[in-house]
Design brief:
Helices cover 44% and strands 2% of the residues. The chain is mainly alpha-helical and 277 residues long. Strands 1-2 form a two-stranded antiparallel ribbon.
């Protein structure tokens, strides 16, 4: 049986391949043969400098590809005539470490000016984030083009909230021909990294408007989170998404089964009768 971290790789590949049949391994072998080595080198330095940053970069792939395809539109800043996706509801105060992509782009431009797209950088960097934190390595297909526009409205309408429940997520993914198993596997990207107290305050103190905590919390874990995120906390304080936040492994799924899921959108997957996995 395929393990969830390995199955996640197939889901990431699926999301990145559906938009184009022209992608191929070794796309830059002639025009920028060191491209993948350059990306990995910058990612290694980012991991040493701030381990959380590689988890943040890994999530760029989903936030980019799920909204109108893998085109790096999420990297574009606002202009007088365009609202970028950085300030979309699911991205603002959530996506971070854009500077890592900037560093990769700068290094690639020195080696091969005007060759490697930012869309491909996101794909390579996401793969490296997994590989550098203990997960599997895999060959990426490249050849994407960068978008010249972004669409904040589409991002707002498409990207799920960390507060979403299982039924909403399942229905959303089905619209993109992704199964429940795909959804559960993709959620395994939360094997590494952190999230803000902002995302769980309602779970701790007012789940579903009851004025009570989410009963799905394992009691001792809830006590830990109450200390991390009291009612008067700066809601930008962060907590680990699983108990091994620097290691890409299966612990995330074990924590969900034990009632130790940080985000509602994660914990709800282990409780839904619609799991089918």
């Amino acid at each position: 049986m395929m393990t969830m971290p390995l199955f996640l790789i197939f889901i990431l590949l699926h999301i990145t391949l559906v938009a184009s049949s022209d992608l191929r391994p070794g796309f830059y072998s002639n025009t920028c043969p060191q491209a993948e080595l350059i990306v990995r080198d910058v990612m290694k330095k980012a991991l040493i400098r701030e381990p959380r940053s590689v988890a943040s970069v890994m999530r760029f792939q989903f936030h980019d590809c799920f909204v109108n395809g893998c085109d790096a539109s999420m990297l574009l800043d606002d202009t007088p005539t365009m609202l970028g996706e950085k300030l979309a509801l699911s991205n603002i105060n959530s996506l971070r470490s854009f500077e890592v992509i900037d560093e990769i782009k700068e290094a690639l431009e020195k080696a091969c000016p005007g060759v490697v797209s930012c869309a491909d950088i996101i794909i390579m960097a996401a793969r490296d984030a997994v590989a550098l934190t203990g997960g599997p390595n895999w060959e990426v297909r490249l050849g994407r083009l960068d978008s010249l526009t972004a669409n904040q409205e589409d991002s707002n309408n498409i990207m799920p909230s960390p507060r979403a429940n299982a039924s909403y997520l399942i229905d959303l993914f089905q619209k993109f021909n992704l199964s429940v198993k795909d959804l559960v596997a993709l959620s395994g990207s939360h094997s590494i990294g952190q999230a803000r107290c902002f995302s769980i305050m309602f779970r701790l103190y007012n789940q579903s408007g009851t004025g009570k905590p989410d009963p799905a919390f394992e009691p001792k874990y809830r006590e830990e989170l109450n200390k991390l995120c009291p009612l008067d906390v700066d809601q930008n304080v962060t907590g680990n998404l699983d108990s091994t936040p620097l290691l890409f492994d299966n612990q995330y799924f074990k924590d969900l089964v034990a009632g130790r899921g940080f985000l509602n959108s994660d914990q709800t997957l282990s409780l839904s009768p619609r799991q089918g996995v």
